[in-house]
Amino acid sequence: MSTGLIIALIVIVAVVVAVAAVLSLRARGPRHGAGLKRRFGPEYERAVARHDGDTKAAERELAQRVERHGDLRERPLEPAERERFEARWTATQERFVDAPREAVAEADRLIAELAAARGFPADGQYEEQLAALSVHHAHRVEGYRRVHRMVQTGAHDGAGTEEMREALVGARALFEELVRPSRHEGGRHRPDGDRTAPAARSGHTTSSLFHRRQAKES
Known about the structure:
Protein name: Secreted protein
Shape: elongated
Keywords: Membrane, Transmembrane, Transmembrane helix
Strand content: under 5%
Number of domains: 2
């Protein structure tokens, strides 16, 4: 075998190995440094703060979340199932007028049920469910975390109406993202010009209900 042929074979093998490595990394998603920061956004900064500024420790934690939940495929909702969740969320927002604490607690339960219906960890596995949600919906999980913390610690009993309203609005962002049909649901998604869920199209219902409550109390 000539030297030129040997060199050509070595080059070909090197190229194949490099391409395979790139494809493998893409399939696994970002696991380190800048890739994790892009993927997790505010969750990245939160993890760093929780580890007292130790970036490496925070990145190890986030990389472990991707390892555990990065391959999760969200289950599509059936149209009737989606309508039931949307109706329950609308009722929760309306309940906020007269019973804000109960509305916050119901929002916590509803998002947990919706996440479970989409294929995220369920059966009381809140921490794992939140970790999985952070991998796939990193920019929306903080509202859910906030209402859950309020309910579990009883903080909503001493919270003001405005604080509870803000928590409910934050939780609604994750609800809308989870309930919304994706591009890959076989044509069942909304038209390109109307991708928001009914709660979003209703003119920020939670905010308007809050102002109705203020007027009622004045």
